[in-house]
Amino acid sequence: MGVVYHANYLVWFEIGRTDLLRTIGWSYRQMEATGILLPVIEAHCEYRKPSQYDDELKVITRGELLSPTRVGFNYEICWLDGEVSAVGRTVHAAINEQRRPCRLPEQLSSVLA
C-alpha cells in the first residue's frame, strides 16, 4: 500500500523511550543490570496521517511518573516540519527479577516527578 506498517509505530515508540532514558543518563541496559525491568502493561496508538516509505520522521517522547511503581510515556511521530503522523502512549510497571512489582528506581522517578 506504500504506507508504513501500523505496528512499526510501536517499535518507534520503543526507540523514543530508549533514547529518552539514555538522555537522562540511565539506559535500559543499566536499569536491567540493577534488576529492574519495565514491561509494557498498556499501549495505545492513534494514527493521524499515514507515513510513506522513506519519509524522514522524528519521535518526540515525554515521560511522567504515574505512581511509585508505574511510569507513562507519551509519543508523537512527526515529519521534520512538525506535522504529526501518529500519537501514542505506553504505561510500564516496574518489576524485579522475580517478576514482582517494585518501586521505580530513584534515577528515573526523580527525573519524571
Find the CATH superfamily: Hotdog Thioesterase
CATH class wording: Alpha Beta
Characterize the largest beta sheet: strand count, sense, and whether it forms a barrel: 4 strands, antiparallel
SS elements, strand count: 4
Strand order of the largest sheet: 1-4-3-2
Query: Do you know the CATH architecture?
Result: Roll
Distance between the termini: 42 Å
Unreliable stretches: none
Q: What percentage of amino acids are in beta strands?
A: 25-35%
**Structure annotation, total helices:** 3
Average per-residue pLDDT, rounded, comes to: 95
Structurally, how many domains make up the residues? 1
Structure explained in plain terms:
By secondary structure, the chain is α+β, with helices and mostly antiparallel strands. The chain has a single domain, classed as Roll (Thiol Ester Dehydrase, Chain A). 26% of the residues lie in helices and 35% in strands. It is built from 3 helices and 4 strands. The protein has a 4-stranded antiparallel sheet, covered by helices on one side. The chain is elongated, with a radius of gyration of 15 Å. The model has no long low-confidence stretch (mean pLDDT 95).
